[in-house]
Amino acid sequence: MHSTLDKIKKQLTVKGFKLTPQREATVRVLLEHEDDHLSAEDVYILVKAKFPEIGLATVYRTLELLSELHVVEKINFGDGVARYDLRNESQEHHHHHLICLTCGSVEEIKEDWLLPLELRLEQEFQFKVLDHRLDFQGTCRECLSKAE
Amino acid sequence: MHSTLDKIKKQLTVKGFKLTPQREATVRVLLEHEDDHLSAEDVYILVKAKFPEIGLATVYRTLELLSELHVVEKINFGDGVARYDLRNESQEHHHHHLICLTCGSVEEIKEDWLLPLELRLEQEFQFKVLDHRLDFQGTCRECLSKAE
DNA sequence: GTAAATGCAAATTATTTGCATCTTA
DNA sequence: TAAGATGCAAATAATTTGCATTTAC
Protein backbone atom coordinates (compact mmCIF):
# COMPACT_ATOMS: atom_id res chain seq x y z
CA MET A 1 0.00 0.00 0.00
CA HIS A 2 2.56 2.50 1.07
CA SER A 3 5.76 1.01 -0.25
CA THR A 4 8.72 3.24 -0.91
CA LEU A 5 8.18 2.59 -4.60
CA ASP A 6 4.65 3.95 -4.36
CA LYS A 7 5.84 7.05 -2.56
CA ILE A 8 8.43 7.73 -5.22
CA LYS A 9 5.87 7.19 -7.96
CA LYS A 10 3.61 9.67 -6.25
CA GLN A 11 6.37 12.24 -6.02
CA LEU A 12 6.83 11.95 -9.77
CA THR A 13 3.16 12.28 -10.69
CA VAL A 14 2.56 15.11 -8.22
CA LYS A 15 5.31 17.13 -9.87
CA GLY A 16 3.89 16.39 -13.31
CA PHE A 17 6.45 13.86 -14.49
CA LYS A 18 5.34 10.78 -16.34
CA LEU A 19 5.45 7.29 -14.93
CA THR A 20 7.36 5.40 -17.56
CA PRO A 21 8.37 1.75 -17.26
CA GLN A 22 12.01 2.87 -17.61
CA ARG A 23 11.69 5.10 -14.56
CA GLU A 24 9.97 2.41 -12.58
CA ALA A 25 12.60 -0.17 -13.52
CA THR A 26 15.37 2.23 -12.50
CA VAL A 27 13.79 2.95 -9.13
CA ARG A 28 13.31 -0.78 -8.54
CA VAL A 29 16.99 -1.40 -9.12
CA LEU A 30 17.88 1.36 -6.67
CA LEU A 31 15.54 -0.15 -4.08
CA GLU A 32 17.05 -3.62 -4.57
CA HIS A 33 20.53 -2.20 -4.02
CA GLU A 34 19.91 0.27 -1.25
CA ASP A 35 23.24 -0.26 0.43
CA ASP A 36 25.48 -0.34 -2.60
CA HIS A 37 26.78 2.90 -4.00
CA LEU A 38 25.92 2.44 -7.63
CA SER A 39 27.30 4.49 -10.49
CA ALA A 40 25.09 5.37 -13.46
CA GLU A 41 26.82 2.60 -15.42
CA ASP A 42 26.14 0.09 -12.61
CA VAL A 43 22.47 1.06 -12.57
CA TYR A 44 22.35 0.81 -16.36
CA ILE A 45 23.71 -2.74 -16.37
CA LEU A 46 21.31 -3.83 -13.65
CA VAL A 47 18.26 -2.23 -15.26
CA LYS A 48 19.22 -3.58 -18.68
CA ALA A 49 19.02 -7.13 -17.31
CA LYS A 50 15.31 -6.67 -16.69
CA PHE A 51 14.56 -4.06 -19.32
CA PRO A 52 16.98 -4.58 -22.21
CA GLU A 53 15.76 -1.80 -24.47
CA ILE A 54 16.65 0.98 -22.00
CA GLY A 55 19.38 3.40 -23.03
CA LEU A 56 22.21 4.73 -20.89
CA ALA A 57 21.09 8.31 -21.47
CA THR A 58 17.70 7.52 -19.99
CA VAL A 59 19.35 6.14 -16.88
CA TYR A 60 21.40 9.33 -16.55
CA ARG A 61 18.31 11.45 -17.07
CA THR A 62 16.31 9.44 -14.54
CA LEU A 63 19.03 9.60 -11.92
CA GLU A 64 19.38 13.33 -12.46
CA LEU A 65 15.63 13.75 -12.05
CA LEU A 66 15.53 11.64 -8.89
CA SER A 67 18.41 13.67 -7.59
CA GLU A 68 16.50 16.92 -8.12
CA LEU A 69 13.52 15.40 -6.35
CA HIS A 70 15.85 14.46 -3.47
CA VAL A 71 14.91 10.83 -3.92
CA VAL A 72 18.53 9.92 -4.45
CA GLU A 73 21.68 11.56 -3.27
CA LYS A 74 24.40 12.05 -5.86
CA ILE A 75 27.78 11.53 -4.27
CA ASN A 76 31.32 11.59 -5.43
CA PHE A 77 33.99 9.66 -3.59
CA GLY A 78 36.83 11.21 -5.53
CA ASP A 79 37.31 8.65 -8.26
CA GLY A 80 35.82 10.31 -11.33
CA VAL A 81 32.42 8.59 -11.01
CA ALA A 82 29.16 9.89 -9.57
CA ARG A 83 27.28 7.47 -7.38
CA TYR A 84 23.64 7.49 -6.44
CA ASP A 85 22.16 6.48 -3.08
CA LEU A 86 18.52 6.14 -2.27
CA ARG A 87 17.66 8.70 0.37
CA ASN A 88 15.73 7.38 3.27
CA GLU A 89 12.85 9.69 4.10
CA SER A 90 13.63 9.10 7.76
CA GLN A 91 17.02 10.71 7.34
CA GLU A 92 16.66 14.38 6.80
CA HIS A 93 20.31 14.78 5.91
CA HIS A 94 22.93 12.68 4.19
CA HIS A 95 24.34 9.78 6.07
CA HIS A 96 28.03 9.48 6.75
CA HIS A 97 30.57 7.15 5.14
CA LEU A 98 33.54 5.21 6.41
CA ILE A 99 35.74 4.66 3.38
CA CYS A 100 38.49 2.09 3.78
CA LEU A 101 41.62 3.11 1.90
CA THR A 102 42.99 -0.42 2.04
CA CYS A 103 40.14 -2.55 0.68
CA GLY A 104 37.86 0.16 -0.70
CA SER A 105 34.82 -0.87 1.32
CA VAL A 106 32.26 1.77 2.22
CA GLU A 107 30.33 1.45 5.45
CA GLU A 108 27.48 3.73 6.35
CA ILE A 109 26.58 5.43 9.55
CA LYS A 110 22.97 6.38 9.58
CA GLU A 111 22.98 8.47 12.75
CA ASP A 112 23.31 12.19 12.40
CA TRP A 113 26.29 13.28 14.41
CA LEU A 114 26.40 16.82 13.24
CA LEU A 115 23.41 18.57 14.75
CA PRO A 116 25.45 20.28 17.50
CA LEU A 117 27.93 21.50 14.89
CA GLU A 118 25.13 22.83 12.71
CA LEU A 119 23.74 24.86 15.57
CA ARG A 120 27.17 26.30 16.19
CA LEU A 121 27.54 27.19 12.51
CA GLU A 122 24.26 29.03 12.45
CA GLN A 123 25.19 30.98 15.55
CA GLU A 124 28.87 31.70 14.96
CA PHE A 125 28.88 32.00 11.19
CA GLN A 126 25.29 32.95 10.42
CA PHE A 127 25.29 30.11 7.90
CA LYS A 128 21.96 28.35 7.44
CA VAL A 129 22.69 24.68 6.95
CA LEU A 130 20.44 22.83 4.54
CA ASP A 131 22.50 19.71 4.09
CA HIS A 132 25.90 18.28 4.81
CA ARG A 133 28.26 15.58 3.89
CA LEU A 134 30.74 13.79 6.09
CA ASP A 135 33.13 11.07 4.97
CA PHE A 136 35.99 9.49 6.87
CA GLN A 137 38.92 7.85 5.12
CA GLY A 138 40.94 5.28 7.01
CA THR A 139 41.30 1.59 7.72
CA CYS A 140 38.33 -0.63 8.44
CA ARG A 141 38.03 -3.25 11.17
CA GLU A 142 38.72 -6.16 8.80
CA CYS A 143 41.85 -4.62 7.30
CA LEU A 144 43.11 -3.61 10.74
CA SER A 145 42.86 -7.17 12.02
CA LYS A 146 44.51 -8.59 8.89
CA ALA A 147 47.38 -6.17 9.33
CA GLU A 148 48.25 -7.44 12.80
CA MET B 1 64.75 30.81 4.60
CA HIS B 2 61.97 28.46 5.49
CA SER B 3 59.20 29.55 3.18
CA THR B 4 56.42 27.16 2.30
CA LEU B 5 57.85 27.03 -1.20
CA ASP B 6 61.18 25.84 0.15
CA LYS B 7 59.53 23.19 2.23
CA ILE B 8 57.63 21.86 -0.75
CA LYS B 9 60.78 21.89 -2.87
CA LYS B 10 62.52 19.90 -0.19
CA GLN B 11 59.72 17.35 -0.07
CA LEU B 12 60.17 16.83 -3.79
CA THR B 13 63.93 16.40 -3.72
CA VAL B 14 63.87 14.21 -0.63
CA LYS B 15 61.55 11.81 -2.40
CA GLY B 16 63.75 11.81 -5.49
CA PHE B 17 61.64 14.00 -7.76
CA LYS B 18 63.24 16.63 -9.88
CA LEU B 19 62.88 20.34 -9.33
CA THR B 20 61.67 21.60 -12.68
CA PRO B 21 60.66 25.18 -13.42
CA GLN B 22 57.19 23.90 -14.37
CA ARG B 23 56.74 22.38 -10.94
CA GLU B 24 57.98 25.50 -9.22
CA ALA B 25 55.70 27.72 -11.27
CA THR B 26 52.73 25.50 -10.45
CA VAL B 27 53.45 25.55 -6.73
CA ARG B 28 53.85 29.34 -6.85
CA VAL B 29 50.41 29.69 -8.40
CA LEU B 30 48.91 27.48 -5.72
CA LEU B 31 50.60 29.60 -3.03
CA GLU B 32 49.30 32.82 -4.58
CA HIS B 33 45.77 31.45 -4.59
CA GLU B 34 45.67 29.63 -1.29
CA ASP B 35 42.04 30.38 -0.59
CA ASP B 36 40.60 29.74 -4.02
CA HIS B 37 39.63 26.23 -4.96
CA LEU B 38 41.32 25.94 -8.31
CA SER B 39 40.62 23.30 -10.91
CA ALA B 40 43.46 21.90 -13.00
CA GLU B 41 42.29 24.11 -15.85
CA ASP B 42 42.33 27.18 -13.58
CA VAL B 43 45.85 26.38 -12.48
CA TYR B 44 46.91 25.83 -16.08
CA ILE B 45 45.63 29.25 -17.16
CA LEU B 46 47.34 30.97 -14.25
CA VAL B 47 50.64 29.18 -14.71
CA LYS B 48 50.56 29.74 -18.46
CA ALA B 49 50.47 33.50 -17.88
CA LYS B 50 53.93 33.31 -16.31
CA PHE B 51 55.24 30.25 -18.07
CA PRO B 52 53.60 30.06 -21.49
CA GLU B 53 55.27 26.90 -22.75
CA ILE B 54 53.78 24.69 -20.03
CA GLY B 55 51.33 22.00 -21.13
CA LEU B 56 48.04 21.06 -19.49
CA ALA B 57 49.19 17.47 -19.04
CA THR B 58 52.15 18.66 -16.99
CA VAL B 59 49.82 20.60 -14.74
CA TYR B 60 47.72 17.50 -14.23
CA ARG B 61 50.81 15.43 -13.53
CA THR B 62 52.16 17.98 -11.10
CA LEU B 63 48.88 18.29 -9.22
CA GLU B 64 48.62 14.52 -9.01
CA LEU B 65 52.15 14.33 -7.67
CA LEU B 66 51.54 17.05 -5.11
CA SER B 67 48.39 15.25 -4.10
CA GLU B 68 50.30 12.03 -3.47
CA LEU B 69 52.81 13.99 -1.40
CA HIS B 70 49.88 15.44 0.57
CA VAL B 71 50.98 18.92 -0.41
CA VAL B 72 47.62 19.58 -1.96
CA GLU B 73 44.24 18.13 -1.24
CA LYS B 74 42.19 16.98 -4.23
CA ILE B 75 38.54 17.72 -3.61
CA ASN B 76 35.37 17.30 -5.56
CA PHE B 77 32.39 19.49 -4.85
CA GLY B 78 30.06 17.45 -7.04
CA ASP B 79 30.31 19.33 -10.31
CA GLY B 80 32.47 17.12 -12.50
CA VAL B 81 35.71 18.98 -11.75
CA ALA B 82 38.50 18.11 -9.33
CA ARG B 83 39.86 21.04 -7.31
CA TYR B 84 43.17 21.35 -5.57
CA ASP B 85 43.81 23.09 -2.26
CA LEU B 86 47.17 23.73 -0.71
CA ARG B 87 47.33 21.81 2.54
CA ASN B 88 48.59 23.76 5.45
CA GLU B 89 51.14 21.73 7.38
CA SER B 90 49.53 23.00 10.56
CA GLN B 91 46.31 21.25 9.67
CA GLU B 92 46.71 17.56 9.97
CA HIS B 93 43.33 16.93 8.41
CA HIS B 94 41.23 18.54 5.72
CA HIS B 95 39.50 21.73 6.58
CA HIS B 96 35.77 22.07 6.31
CA HIS B 97 33.73 23.94 3.74
CA LEU B 98 30.59 26.04 3.87
CA ILE B 99 29.14 25.90 0.37
CA CYS B 100 26.42 28.44 -0.39
CA LEU B 101 23.78 26.98 -2.66
CA THR B 102 22.51 30.43 -3.55
CA CYS B 103 25.65 32.29 -4.66
CA GLY B 104 28.09 29.40 -4.92
CA SER B 105 30.64 30.89 -2.53
CA VAL B 106 32.87 28.55 -0.55
CA GLU B 107 34.02 29.58 2.89
CA GLU B 108 36.56 27.59 4.85
CA ILE B 109 36.66 26.63 8.45
CA LYS B 110 40.13 25.78 9.51
CA GLU B 111 39.37 24.40 12.95
CA ASP B 112 39.05 20.68 13.29
CA TRP B 113 35.69 19.97 14.79
CA LEU B 114 35.73 16.25 14.35
CA LEU B 115 38.27 14.94 16.82
CA PRO B 116 35.66 13.79 19.34
CA LEU B 117 33.78 12.00 16.56
CA GLU B 118 36.96 10.31 15.37
CA LEU B 119 37.63 8.97 18.83
CA ARG B 120 34.13 7.60 18.96
CA LEU B 121 34.57 5.95 15.57
CA GLU B 122 37.74 4.22 16.61
CA GLN B 123 36.11 2.94 19.77
CA GLU B 124 32.63 2.02 18.55
CA PHE B 125 33.45 0.95 15.01
CA GLN B 126 37.11 -0.04 15.26
CA PHE B 127 37.72 2.19 12.25
CA LYS B 128 41.12 3.88 12.20
CA VAL B 129 40.59 7.37 10.83
CA LEU B 130 43.35 8.74 8.65
CA ASP B 131 41.51 11.66 7.13
CA HIS B 132 38.07 13.09 6.75
CA ARG B 133 36.01 15.49 4.79
CA LEU B 134 33.16 17.64 5.95
CA ASP B 135 31.14 20.02 3.79
CA PHE B 136 28.00 21.89 4.63
CA GLN B 137 25.56 23.06 1.98
CA GLY B 138 23.26 25.93 2.80
CA THR B 139 22.83 29.67 2.65
CA CYS B 140 25.63 32.06 3.53
CA ARG B 141 25.40 35.19 5.67
CA GLU B 142 25.30 37.52 2.66
CA CYS B 143 22.54 35.65 0.87
CA LEU B 144 20.53 35.35 4.08
CA SER B 145 20.61 39.10 4.62
CA LYS B 146 19.75 39.82 0.98
CA ALA B 147 16.76 37.49 1.24
CA GLU B 148 15.22 39.45 4.11
C1' DG C 1 -3.63 15.00 -29.27
C1' DT C 2 0.23 16.86 -27.20
C1' DA C 3 3.85 17.64 -24.17
C1' DA C 4 7.07 14.89 -22.27
C1' DA C 5 10.19 10.91 -22.49
C1' DT C 6 13.02 7.66 -25.00
C1' DG C 7 16.94 5.60 -27.71
C1' DC C 8 20.56 6.23 -30.39
C1' DA C 9 24.58 8.49 -32.00
C1' DA C 10 27.32 12.30 -31.91
C1' DA C 11 29.22 16.01 -28.99
C1' DT C 12 31.34 17.67 -24.88
C1' DT C 13 34.23 17.76 -20.81
C1' DA C 14 37.67 16.23 -17.74
C1' DT C 15 41.49 13.57 -17.42
C1' DT C 16 45.13 10.21 -18.91
C1' DT C 17 48.56 8.20 -21.86
C1' DG C 18 52.16 7.21 -25.64
C1' DC C 19 56.04 8.80 -27.35
C1' DA C 20 59.79 11.54 -29.14
C1' DT C 21 62.44 15.09 -27.11
C1' DC C 22 64.57 17.63 -23.51
C1' DT C 23 66.48 18.50 -18.71
C1' DT C 24 67.85 17.86 -13.91
C1' DA C 25 70.69 15.66 -10.69
C1' DT D 1 74.57 10.35 -19.09
C1' DA D 2 70.60 8.24 -17.52
C1' DA D 3 66.36 8.37 -15.19
C1' DG D 4 62.88 11.27 -15.02
C1' DA D 5 60.01 15.15 -16.82
C1' DT D 6 57.85 17.64 -20.56
C1' DG D 7 54.78 18.91 -24.51
C1' DC D 8 51.92 17.65 -27.78
C1' DA D 9 48.41 14.99 -29.80
C1' DA D 10 45.66 11.19 -29.56
C1' DA D 11 43.01 8.09 -26.43
C1' DT D 12 39.78 7.28 -22.74
C1' DA D 13 35.98 7.85 -19.57
C1' DA D 14 31.98 9.96 -17.83
C1' DT D 15 28.30 12.55 -18.91
C1' DT D 16 25.27 15.49 -21.91
C1' DT D 17 22.76 16.77 -25.94
C1' DG D 18 20.22 16.86 -30.62
C1' DC D 19 16.83 14.86 -32.88
C1' DA D 20 13.54 11.77 -34.88
C1' DT D 21 10.31 8.62 -32.85
C1' DT D 22 7.36 6.86 -29.27
C1' DT D 23 4.34 7.02 -25.22
C1' DA D 24 1.75 8.45 -20.99
C1' DC D 25 -1.73 11.24 -19.61
From TrEMBL, chains A, B:
Transmembrane segments: none annotated. Keywords: DNA-binding, Repressor, Transcription, Transcription regulation, Zinc. The keyword Transcription regulation applies. Belongs to the Fur family. Coiled coil: none annotated. The lineage of its organism: Bacteria, Bacillati, Bacillota, Bacilli, Bacillales. PANTHER family: FERRIC UPTAKE REGULATION PROTEIN, ZINC UPTAKE REGULATION PROTEIN. It holds the Pfam family FUR. The keyword Repressor applies. This is Transcriptional repressor. It comes from the Bacteria. Gene3D superfamilies: 3.30.1490.190, Winged helix-like DNA-binding domain superfamily/Winged helix DNA-binding domain (1.10.10.10).
